[in-house]
Design brief:
With about 400 residues, the protein is mainly beta. It is about 5% helix and about 55% strand. Strands 3-5-6-7-8-9-10-11-12-15-16-17-18-19-20-21 form a 16-stranded antiparallel β-barrel. A two-stranded antiparallel ribbon has the order 13-14. The longest helix has 13 residues. This is Porin. It comes from Niastella yeongjuensis. Keywords: Signal.
Length: about 400
């Protein structure tokens, strides 16, 4: 028994908690500049636990919550949810070759997804190669989505119901960075498998990009043989903030089979802009994203299938108390507000010229307490106002949510 406790003690004493940082990208870089993390760094900017000299490091996060919501005055009552458990496994194969995987279990084990599993070959700060299951860098949230980083229980509507949040595919690409004093310039570019015709042939009855996430075959073959391109450029200034511009586009329909032409090539194109900053005096954190979606929908489909969509969100987070609380030395109490909007069908009816109204607006005030930077306990009030395609009186959802999210 004594030997057992001794072994446990030795293992715990050799465990070190750290956030991985790319050694090549930080070489010969001033320390204050190197500490400027960008959204593209989110996959490595996480806490990992490494035991002694083992080549593998482990980490992850968990989030759970309670909610009581009403839709048009009708409620399903008190609900307790285990939103997700995510595991990270990383390994430094050699000095310039790294592997990282992210596996997510949603709603218990209702969904199990490999969100990221790639090998990075670091050639120089400006040129690095990545292959495997990559996270398509459209907008900012798709890469920087870990629950403990956010003051809100629900993920943004625009990122989950217009864009396919945590959208990843098998493919290859390059990425890099350049540091110049207070500035950081970065880029990413990938060719991967992509969307399929479920974006217009789905149970939602509308143009819905997240429907393609249900196609697990995209991890072993392309639906139509045409690659999806995703590219992003970003710039960050230590005093101003970070600005990102991204594009994702490709063919979504099966236009030929066995040499026989079935249809013309129908593209889907997505453009996104994201920005985040921290105001120097008040320490107010502002984070926003806006995206535009364009889909070539066949003329045989009715107008309820949108050819143009747009939407986004903005988060405002204000620290109000920073001091030791209840035994936690670096505790912070925040107040926050999220504003979000999505228009799934931007345009007008051909027959009447009237506006197509398939849209939602939501605001979410929040209070969050961070006993440590890696753990957040949050209370949200959600209010959604959603109009149907005809612009009838809106459906309203309102209620409270309480939960936590933490790295481990």
């Amino acid at each position: 028994m004594k030997q057992y406790y001794l072994l446990i003690t030795l293992l715990c004493s050799t465990a070190t908690l750290y956030a991985q940082i790319d050694p090549v990208l930080l070489r010969n870089t001033p320390k204050d500049t190197a500490e400027m993390k960008m959204n593209m760094d989110a996959i490595y900017n996480r806490p990992f636990l490494q035991l002694g000299k083992l080549p593998v490091a482990l980490g992850g996060y968990v989030e759970a919550n309670y909610q009581y919501l009403k839709e048009n005055g009708i409620s399903e009552g008190h609900q307790f949810q285990m939103r997700r458990l995510t595991l990270f496994v990383s390994s430094a194969i050699s000095k310039r070759i790294k592997f990282l995987s992210e596996i997510e279990f949603e709603d218990g084990t209702k969904e199990i997804n490999i969100e990221f599993a790639s090998v990075d070959f670091e050639l120089s700060p400006l040129l690095n190669f990545r292959g495997g299951v990559v996270m398509n860098p459209i907008g900012a949230f798709n890469q920087n989505h870990d629950g403990p980083k956010w003051e809100f229980i629900d993920r943004p509507i625009s990122a989950t119901q217009m864009l396919p949040a945590t959208w990843s595919n098998v493919g290859f690409g390059i990425f890099g960075k350049k540091y110049v004093k207070d500035w950081v310039y970065a880029y990413e570019a990938y060719f991967t498998n992509g969307f399929d015709d479920q974006i217009i042939n789905n149970a939602e009855g509308k143009t819905f990009l997240p429907a393609s996430k249900t196609n697990a075959d995209r991890f072993e073959e392309s639906f139509n043989g045409s690659p999806l391109f995703t590219g992003k450029v970003a710039v960050k200034n230590r005093k101003i903030g970070e600005l990102g511009l991204s594009y994702m586009g490709g063919i979504y329909n099966k236009y030929q089979e066995d040499g026989l032409t079935l249809d013309k090539k129908r593209p889907v194109n997505v453009f996104a802009i994201d920005f985040n900053t921290t105001l120097p005096k008040s320490k107010t954190y502002i984070n926003g994203e806006w995206a535009w979606v364009h889909v070539d929908v066949p003329d045989t489909y009715t107008e309820q299938f949108g050819r143009n969509q747009q939407g986004g969100f903005v988060d405002i987070v204000q620290p109000v108390i920073k001091k030791p609380m209840m035994g936690f030395e670096k505790a912070v109490l925040n107040v926050a507000l999220r504003l979000e909007y999505v228009d799934w069908n931007k345009g007008s009816f051909k027959s009447t010229g009237g506006n197509i109204s398939d849209e939602v607006f939501a605001f979410v005030p929040a209070i969050s307490w961070r006993p440590t930077p890696q753990t957040v306990i949050r209370l949200n009030y959600r209010h959604n106002t959603q109009h149907d395609i005809l612009g009838n009186p809106p459906s309203k959802i309102a209620g409270f949510q309480f939960g936590f999210s933490t790295y481990f």
